[in-house]
């Protein structure tokens, strides 16, 4: 069905019946948030879009307190509309998507960007190839223990602690304990989570 002013209004009516609409003029599939993972799933949506030549997906009636991180996994997602979005906003969103833009509320993009940056930082830190034993040494060092106390805690010799610390310093590109502690202050919680 073609989305026009009348149909856009029906998307926001409290007694809406449809869980999906097709915006023919825009070649977009619109799915009601309440239909996600209950009536439809990623595979069904992908198949439906491929079979019908839809270039994008928009999800509407998204509660502001909904799980926004999971929404980005939906195929060819081009836009999201919160509950109560008016017809003018729908029209603006559809036109923006037609121009090749995306239409997401700022809170959504902020949430997704924060998650992406957190994942990138964690991946970058893990790529330092710090072993589990070295991570234990680093955590103990950051907790304020000296080499002898770290050795006692891990049941290893002080010489082994010094070897671990030397390797850790190389992996995290620092030259001494003070720099390592600063590095830990900035990065250790990202690795440990």
Structure summarized in a few sentences:
With 193 residues, this protein is an alpha/beta fold.
Could you tell me the mean pLDDT?
Answer: 81
| Overall 3D form | elongated
Q: What is the strand arrangement across the widest sheet? A: 1-2-3-4
The run of helices and strands is HEEHEHEHHHHHH
Radius of gyration: 26 Å
> DSSP helix count?
9
Could you characterize what this model shows?
Helices cover 54% and strands 11% of the residues. The chain is built from nine helices and four strands. Strands 1-2-3-4 form a four-stranded mixed β-sheet, with helices on one face. The protein starts with a helix and ends with a helix. The model is unreliable at 1-10 and 12-16 (pLDDT under 50).
Structure keywords:
193 residues, alpha/beta, 4-stranded mixed sheet, disordered N terminus
Task: Map the helices and strands.
Blueprint: H1 5-12, E1 20-23, E2 28-32, H2 42-52, E3 56-62, H3 68-71, E4 77-82, H4 87-98, H5 106-126, H6 132-142, H7 147-154, H8 158-171, H9 177-192
Parallel strand pairs: 2-3, 3-4
Antiparallel strand pairs: 1-2
């Amino acid at each position: 069905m073609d989305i026009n002013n009348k149909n856009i209004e029906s998307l926001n009516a409290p007694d809406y019946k449809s869980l999906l609409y097709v915006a023919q003029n825009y070649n977009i599939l619109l799915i009601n948030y309440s239909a996600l993972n209950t009536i439809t799933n990623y595979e069904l949506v992908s198949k439906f879009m491929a079979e019908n030549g839809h270039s994008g997906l928009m999800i509407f009636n998204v509660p502001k307190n909904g799980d926004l991180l999971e929404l980005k996994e939906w195929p060819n997602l081009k836009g999201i509309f919160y509950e109560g979005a008016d017809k003018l906003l729908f029209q603006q969103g559809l036109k923006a998507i037609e121009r090749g833009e995306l239409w997401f509320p700022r809170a959504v993009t902020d949430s997704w960007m924060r998650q992406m940056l957190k994942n990138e930082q964690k991946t970058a830190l893990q790529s330092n190839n710090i072993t589990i034993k070295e991570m234990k040494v680093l955590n103990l060092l950051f907790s304020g223990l000296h080499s002898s106390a770290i050795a006692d805690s891990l049941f290893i010799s002080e010489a082994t602690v010094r070897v671990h610390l030397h390797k850790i310093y190389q992996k995290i590109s620092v030259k001494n304990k003070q720099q390592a502690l600063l590095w830990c202050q900035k990065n250790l919680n990202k690795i440990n989570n």
